[in-house]
Amino acid sequence: MACKLPAQLATPGKLHHHCQFTITSAFIPLSWRRTLSPEPLLSLSTSFPSGKCNGKQLVTCSAIGTAEATGAVNLGPGTPVRPTSILVVGATGTLGRQIVRRALDEGYDVRCLVRPRPAPADFLRDWGAIVVNADLSKPETIPATMVGVHTVIDCATGRPEEPIKTVDWEGKVALIQCAKAMGIQKYVFYSIHNCDKHPEVPLMEIKYCTEKFLQDSGLPHVIIRLCGFMQGLIGQYAVPILEEKSVWGTDAPTRIAYMDTQDIARLTLVALRNEKINGKLLTFAGPRAWTTQEVITLCERLAGQDANVTTVPVSVLRVTRQLTRLFEWTNDVADRLAFSEVLTSDVVFSVPMNETYSLLGVEQKDIVTLEKYLQDYFTNILKKLKDLKAQSKQSDIYF
Questions:
Q1: Tell me, what's the pLDDT at 26?
Q2: Cβ neighbour number for residue 315 with a 10 Å cutoff
Q3: Mean pLDDT throughout 199-205?
Q4: pLDDT > 70: percent of the chain
Q5: Which residues contact 165 (CB under 8 A, 6 or more apart)?
Q6: What is the pLDDT of residue 247?
Q7: Residue 300 has pLDDT above 80, yes or no
Q8: Most confident of 55-64, 236-245, 381-390
Q9: Are 177 and 143 in contact (CB under 8 A)?
Q10: Are 96 and 118 in contact (CB under 8 A)?
Q11: Nearest Cα residue to 179 out of 190, 171, 188, 187
């Protein structure tokens, strides 16, 4: 089976013991030659990730991306762009919207790249940002969004209903190539902690491949690996507990150092202004790593009620993943289950942050803890529920 990227992005090379790609576009040609592992498990192919070369699922993802290798040159000085001009890609997401809001508060000129959608992102305009429509799966829509931009902050990720490769791989290749061609002076990319250690997980392998692609592209950049968002715990645990619905958990001792996306946004902009950070790979982690059961227990205490917990054994996830691999139309489900397996295994998604705090000039005491974040949420939501109940009683009519 031929292993290739879309025609506008790649020309497949010959298949030997692994797949090699020469990635080209109207912007910057980048030739990927180096194999990440002796037997990589993922294939960037038209039937991604089930496509196989010589019977194995593979990926090669390194680039020769210097100016000399790519032939990219500046066409001469044009109108200088202000260092405060930022393009946020994925601005409507959990992290993206916090990046936009923080950047606006700090005086940046923020442009937001969002996909055309039935419900326009009016809240971004209300905040003071400029909204431009483009789609990473359509490379021809990207260049116009970068005119007059100094820095690109890439928060985008694919929607659950679409193949992982569409945005997180093909779209990012096009975005980085375009940024190089348009003379973008800094590119911030968000990745996943430990992505280099799990080539069996499509999303994590793609994140690692994108890191390598960006590093070899020659673009001035900062790569930030993240462990987990505190905001995600609200819908997963806090709301179901308050609504007395089932809370899903696993029997694995995985520990995750969740971080408030507002803190991630603040640290990102600090890193953006620090020239010592250029070209570095940072990992942002919260003050403490938590197991699922510890998070549920904390939510129960703050909500003042017990959770209806349904535990899913890790073994069930593994079997389900194997079954979904049998059918082409369930491959994307299998990809996401593979990521779930990692999150439910005996691993710790955390790193010591002392060196990063020192590098950024940030105090640990200024980073929100999960206890404080959830306490504020439950205090506010329970007060609102109490007020609504009181208003409801005042409006009752008796005959």
A1: 38
A2: 9
A3: 84
A4: 67
A5: 44, 48, 49, 202, 206
A6: 84
A7: yes
A8: 236-245
A9: no
A10: no
A11: 187
Say if strands 348-349 and 221-226 run parallel, antiparallel, or are unpaired.
unpaired
| pLDDT classification of 189: cutoffs 50, 70, 90 | very high
- Give the whole-angstrom CA distance, residue 311 versus residue 111: 43
pLDDT in the model for residue 381? 87
Query: What is the C-alpha separation between 393 and 199, in angstroms, rounded?
Result: 57
Tokens read off for 384: 């609102």
CA distance 318 to 252: 13
Helix (H) or strand (E) holding 23: strand 21-23
Tokens of 194: 């430990």
Q: C-alpha distances in angstroms, 39 versus 18, 42, 62, 97, 135?
A: 8, 9, 15, 39, 33
Task: For residue 94, count CB atoms less than 10 angstroms from its CB and return exposed for 0-12, middle for 13-18, buried for 19 or more.
Answer: middle
Rounded CA separation 87/148 (Å): 10
| Residue from 200, 198, 193, 196 nearest 212 by CA | 196
Dihedral sign (CA 271, 276, 278, 283) = negative
Q: Do 232 and 260 touch, CB atoms closer than 8 A?
A: no
